Amino acid sequence: MTPENAGQEPIALAELTTMRVGGVPAHMVTATTQRDLIDAARAVWASGGEWLVIGGGSNTVASDDGFEGTVIRVATRGIEILPATVAEPGVVRVRVQAGEPWDELVVYTVGRGWSGIEALSGIPGSTGAAPVQNIGAYGQELSTSLVAIDFLDYATGEVLRLDAAALGLDYRTSVLKQGLQGIVLTVELALHDTAEERAVLGQPLGRPVGYAQLAGALGVQLGDRVAITDVRDAVLVLRASKGMVLNPDDPDTCSAGSFFTNPIVRESFARTLPSDAPRWPLEPDEPDVVMPIGSLVSGTPLDAFVALQAESAVSEHAGPVGERLVKLSAAWLIENAGIRRGFQLPGSRAAVSGKHTLAITNTGGATAEEIAQLARFVQGRVQAEFGITLQPEPVLVGITL
Ligand SMILES: Cc1cc2nc3c(=O)[nH]c(=O)nc-3n(C[C@H](O)[C@H](O)[C@H](O)COP(=O)(O)OP(=O)(O)OC[C@H]3O[C@@H](n4cnc5c(N)ncnc54)[C@H](O)[C@@H]3O)c2cc1C
User: Fold this and answer.
1) Which pLDDT tens digit goes with each residue over 34-75?
2) Could you tell me the distance, in angstroms and rounded to a whole number, from the CA of residue 194 to the centre of ligand 1?
3) From ligand 1's centre to the CA of 59, what distance in Å?
4) C-alpha of residue 53 to centroid of ligand 1, in Å
5) What's the domain range around 103?
6) Which residue has the higher pLDDT, 314 or 354?
7) Which GO terms describe its molecular function (predicted)?
8) Mean pLDDT, the chain, as a whole number?
9) pLDDT at residue 320, as a whole number
10) Residue 88: per-residue pLDDT
11) How many CB atoms lie within 10 A of CB 156?
12) Are residues 369 and 294 in the same domain?
């Protein structure tokens, strides 16, 4: 199978991304089975041209100039329940095809009373993209449930099983986001089967609530456990109030979610900020990191990732080894740099979300450059006010800030 004989007329990336910007790529293939995905990717890679993988397009912001290569659309579906083992009582393992919509997976697992990803309800996009930035929300992250991925490796063309520990999963990042090239084919998760709790408590419970705002919405304390369906419902209500659940009737959801990550700075720098600036200490790194085995991950991508972690994921205010790191609120920094919800540059159709300063939205017909101009403006204001350069969270294709 090649892009040409797949015979697919390329569609503008604006139609495939939630930000609704992006030009027409030169070629496009859509794979609905894992076999087709592998074959198509190998054919595209053999042709030597540029390529771009896209799932739900909810974390991709692409230039309107188009893309001089092949877009590989991942549309594989399926959820497989793996056999239970005596070694893991109360654990359910599922293997999920990359193109399975993430929130449909959450509905499936919550409906069966399997906990672990219920607080990740309402996040748009595909399951295969979930490890790319280690999706997280309301006190849960993919990393706590991820066991392994099946990965089609660009360097060798082979399918590898990569354990979660080899993926460098961290706050909104992984080796997949930092340079390890290839395609996630499947995602394997370990969830908690709450059958015993059902017998004792009469209903399946979610994992302990790990986020103060969610605990408040549920009327419980941090660490309490409540019905798994209540967690999902409360998360969806909270997300909708921030424009973070895709809704064609809500223009604030025409975005890529949070446009900037929360900066990570050294504690001494954080102390120079106003006293009301939210800040969360990070756990110190493990003293010894066991590097993954295998030719793939011991090569340059992981090295590149480690270097990038040091240079960019942690902001320019990260300090010498040993000093504690602190995570700041990008939304607070933006608001306190004088940018209000709904802010638009004159004549621009890009806007800061009316519900959340961290999201940049397309109010209708915005160009990719208008989105980028607003992002640069926000960065500039925060830099001028606080000396911090906010880093974009979405993957930018053909766009530089
Ligand atoms: C309204 C809204 C709310 C959001 N809320 C959250 C949130 O709460 N938490 C959060 O973490 N994120 C959030 N996001 C961001 C986004 O939904 C997630 O990052 C999601 O996992 C992206 O999935 P996708 O399939 O749409 O990715 P895409 O945009 O299609 O791709 C994103 C990146 O992953 C790569 N990729 C995609 N599929 C694969 C694959 N199979 N193999 C290898 N690489 C692949 C792409 O090449 C690209 O680099 C939100 C986005 C929106 C629009």
Assistant:
1) 999 999 999 999 999 999 999 999 999 999 999 999 999 999
2) 29
3) 4
4) 11
5) 79-195
6) 354
7) UDP-N-acetylmuramate dehydrogenase activity
8) 89
9) 55
10) 87
11) 11
12) yes
Q: Does ligand 1 have an atom closer than 6 angstroms to the CB of 57?
A: yes
Residues 300 and 391 in one domain: yes
Give the type of residue at 134: N
| pLDDT computed for residue 293 by the predictor | 37
- Count how many Cα atoms sit within 13 Å of the Cα of residue 357 in the half-sphere of its side chain: 19
- Residue 177 CA to ligand 1 centre (angstroms): 11
Ligand 1 atom at minimum distance from 19 CA:
53
Where residue 182 falls (left for φ over 0; alpha for ψ -120 to 50; beta otherwise) is: left
Residue at token pair 């499947």: 186
* Amino acid letter, residue 155: A
Can you read off the two tokens belonging to residue 105? 């997976």
Nearest ligand 1 atom to the CA of 253 is 1
Say how many C-beta atoms besides its own lie within 10 A of residue 255's C-beta.
29
**Looking at per-residue confidence, does 314 or 144 come out higher?**
144
Q: Are residues 88 and 68 in the same domain?
A: no
Indicate whether 312 and 380 sit together in one domain: yes
Q: Is 99 in contact with 58 (CB distance < 8 Å)? A: no
Number of CB atoms found within 10 A of residue 187's CB: 27
* Ligand 1 nearest-atom number relative to CA 128: 41
Residues 108 and 189 in one domain: yes
Give the chain's end-to-end CA distance (angstroms, integer). Answer: 36
Phi and psi torsions of 159, nearest 5° = -90, 125
The verdict on the CB of residue 125 being under 6 Å from ligand 1 is: yes
Q: Are the CB atoms for 142 and 120 separated by under 8 Å?
A: yes
Active site residues: 172, 258, 393
Structure confidence by residue, pLDDT tens digits, 137-186: 999 999 999 999 999 999 999 999 999 999 999 999 999 999 999 999 99
Q: Ligand 1 pocket, 132 CB below 6 A?
A: yes
130 lines ligand 1 (CB under 6 A): yes
Q: Are strands 146-153 and 91-97 parallel, antiparallel or unpaired?
A: unpaired
> Ligand 1, atom 45: nearest CA belongs to which residue?
129
Residue whose Cα lies nearest atom 12 of ligand 1: it is: 135
Residue 140 lies in a domain: yes
Structure-model confidence comparison of residues 288 and 256, the more confident one: 256
| Residue at 232 is within a domain | no
For atom 11 of ligand 1, which residue has the closest CA? 135
Structure token pair of residue 184: 């996630």
Q: Say if 288 falls within a structural domain.
A: yes
- Nearest alpha carbon, ligand 1 atom 4: 257
Q: Confidence class of residue 311 from pLDDT cuts 50, 70 and 90?
A: very low
Structure tokens, 289: 């990191």
